[in-house]
Each structure stands twice: as C-alpha cells, then as structure tokens.
Write a structure and sequence with these properties.
Elements lengths: L1 E5 L9 H15 L10 E6 L14 E4 L3 H9 L3 E5 L3 H9 L4 E4 L13 E2 L4 E2 L9 H7 L5 H18 L4 E4 L2 H7 L4 E3 L21 E5 L8 H13 L5 E5 L5 H10 L6 E5 L3 H8 L4 E4 L9 H8 L4 E4 L2 H7 L4 E3 L4 H13 L1 H18 L2 H20 L1
Parallel strand pairs: 1-2, 1-4, 2-3, 4-5, 5-8, 8-9, 10-11, 10-13, 11-12, 13-14, 14-15
Antiparallel strand pairs: 6-7
Helix pairs in contact: 1-14, 4-5, 7-12, 10-13
Length: about 400
C-alpha cells in the first residue's frame, strides 16, 4: 500500500507531533506481510527544512517543502493520505483526488480557533466557546493578533471542521479528545512509544529527593505552579530539590520567581539536554511532575515517564487522567496546594511511590506500546482500502 503521511512539522524540528509521526512512519515502513514483502510504501511530506537532518537515513521517502504541483502528484500517487493535524492543503487535495483521507488530531484545531482550547492571552482553560456557539468569545480571545487575524482563525476553524467531517477516518489519541471534537468516523488510537529498560536507581530515600519537570518553559506548562507548590513544601521544612529540564521564553521570569519565593537554592535549571543525558538525570529522580494548565490532548511526557517507572504527578486534565489510569497521581489543575499535598504523600511513603511507578510502567507497556499504535493505524488503512475496493 502506498501511504502518504503529511506532517507540517517534522525532524529536525522537536515536539510531540514530530515524535509520534516519526515513530509511526518508521514502524509502518518496517511492517512485512506473510510473504516478507513490505506492507507499506511510506512517503512523508513536510514543510520543515532538512537543516542537518539526513533524510537518507529514514526507511521512507521524505519530501520537504513541496510546490503545490509536487504535493498534488504525490497525493495522486498514493492509496491513502494521512494528515497529522487538519492541514488544509493536503485535506483539500486528498478530497479532490478521491483518496481515502485520514486525519489524526494532535490538537484542538477543529473546535478552537487558536488550536489550544485556551483563553488568550491569560492561557486559562476554555470551557468550549466555539462548540457552544459563543463565537464572539472566540474572536475576542485572539485579538492580540489583530481583529482581522482573529476572524481568519475563527473562519478557518469552520472550514477545518467541515473538511474533517467528510474524511474517511478521524483518529484521536484519547477517548477524551474524541468526545470533544465530535467528528464522524472517529477511532481512538493511543500514541505509542518504544519500550526502554528501567535504569537502576539507588536504593533507599535520598536526603534530598529530586522532583523533575521535563518540557518547554512556557506558561501553559505550569512550571510557575510547580514553584508555588515547592514554596509550600519549603515552608513545611520538606527536603527536596527541583530539576527543570527544558528551556523556553519563561525561563528568565521563572528564575526571578524562584528567587522571590526563596526556593532558588532548591531549583536546578538544566536547560535542554540530549536524550542520553535526560535519561541519566531522570534515573536519579524521585518523581516527575506534569503541571500543565491546558492545551494537552495526550501527554507524551506522561507516558514516557510511566515507561521509566517513575511516579508521575499530573494535573487532572482529561487527557492526563485517561493516560495515567491507575498508574499515576493527579491534582486539581492550577491548584498549587493540592499539588503540594500530593507530593507530600509520595515523599512520606517512598515504598508506595515506587509501587505507583511500577503500575505506571505496566500500564504504559500494555496501552502505549509502539507496535500497538502501528498495528492499529495499519488496520485503519487496510479497512479503508478494502472498503473502497468493495
């Protein structure tokens, strides 16, 4: 089967969409049928420049920044078109070419003009103004970009929703997201990750347990909230350290807040680290906190740290609750006191914390494995082809 995967962002760009798309494309390209023949001939189309990325190292063809005519030819030459996010051009071309189009939703672009389901510029969770018909609120939300730009985003949401309503299949990484977007022909397929061995951790509780955060330093990731919880723990004379892995535009203000809250001696800003160094640092960590305020449809960082058998404490966003199941702890979103309380419970009972980490790993191995994700996507494509042939 000739499969075209369109992803606006791809390596060497770094992000959740890029990670999932790469794993999916690589997994599908490696599938073999009963005769040992390749099951999928994968072509990946992206708008991301190659930079220093060696496209020849991928087991699939990569087309970067194609002209309209090149994209049209590539779509016409495919049997199925998979679009990572409701990108308009491949959606429209796929429909005109009469191809089965699959849209995988990595955000809220069909139910929210800014794609984040957050009220800007405050970054607070949106109660669903677009789907409730409160369109004046949607237009007001994005006026920082200008009134014309805000109206354009609003109108494009209608167009994306209309186009996705007519595709052969919609895929969401969580049942929770599927319930929000309310699109036909929708299947929930959780993201999958490559299973890794659990690093050997020192026995016993360290004098200063390390609580880690991994992600971009932007407002919606909730790092300031984590610092507020850390201030509460310090006032309770709790022993701990915070390890902040990642970088972003909020770093300077976070460093300033850490000094104001008198927790700077407990906080280490590690910046962006290579993968091997991240594994080394997390192997020494006691727990991982994912304090996002919103904008999450799955939570790769949640699943990744479940695989590491690290206790995960995450905000109770719908996606996180679904991914964690009984394999992690949640706190009320944006509630620093509740987060501090959950951390105290883990710090006071390291045995239960370790058991929580083990439950998380078992759940991740069962539900968020790479083969499971690849096989589920392959089944969708084959069903569409067999249906078209019938």
């Amino acid at each position: 089967m000739r499969l075209l995967i369109y992803s606006h962002f791809f390596a060497p760009s770094v992000g959740g969409v890029e990670t999932v798309v790469l794993l999916l494309a690589r997994g599908l390209a490696s599938l073999r049928d009963s005769n040992g023949e390749k099951g999928f001939e994968v072509t990946l189309v992206t708008q991301t420049p190659a930079g220093e990325c060696d496209d020849g190292a991928f087991p699939f063809r990569v087309i970067r920044r194609p002209a309209w005519t090149e994209l049209w030819r590539a779509i016409c030459a495919s049997d199925v078109v998979h679009v990572a996010g409701p990108a308009l051009k491949p959606l429209i071309f796929g429909r005109f070419a009469g191809k089965p189009v699959v849209v995988e939703h990595h955000g809220f672009q069909t139910i929210c003009p800014n794609g984040q389901l957050l009220i800007e510029p405050a970054g607070t969770p949106c109660p669903g103004h677009f789907m409730a018909g409160r369109h004046a609120e949607c237009i007001r939300c994005n006026t920082s970009q200008g009134w014309m730009a805000s109206r354009k985003l609003w109108l494009l949401t209608f167009l994306r929703r209309f186009l996705c309503g007519g595709v052969a299949a919609n895929i969401a990484p969580t049942q929770w997201l599927g319930g929000l977007v309310q699109l036909p022909n929708l299947t929930a397929i959780p993201h999958g990750l490559e299973a890794t061995a659990v690093s050997v951790r020192p026995e016993g509780q360290p004098e200063r347990p390390v609580i880690a955060f991994v992600g971009r330093l932007v407002t919606t990731k909730g790092v300031r909230l984590l610092f507020e919880a850390a201030r509460i723990l310090r006032e309770q004379n709790r022993s701990f350290e915070l390890l902040i892995i990642g970088d972003g535009p909020e770093r300077t203000s976070l460093e300033s807040y850490a000094r104001t809250a008198r927790i700077s001696e407990r906080v280490q800003f590690a910046g962006r680290l290579p993968d091997a160094q991240i594994e080394k640092e997390l192997a020494k960590s006691f727990a991982v906190v994912v304090p996002s305020l919103g904008g999450e449809v799955f939570g790769l960082v949640v699943a990744e740290n479940m695989l590491r058998a690290l206790p995960v404490v995450a905000s109770d966003l719908g996606a996180f609750v679904e991914v964690l199941g009984n394999g992690g702890a949640t706190f009320h979103t944006a509630d620093a006191s509740d987060l501090a309380s959950k951390l105290v419970q883990l710090l006071d009972d390291p045995v239960s914390a370790a058991q929580l980490g083990q439950r998380g790993r078992l759940r991740a191995l069962e539900f968020y494995s790479l083969p499971r994700m690849v096989d589920a996507h392959a089944a969708v494509y084959r069903r569409l082809i067999s249906g078209a042939a019938g």
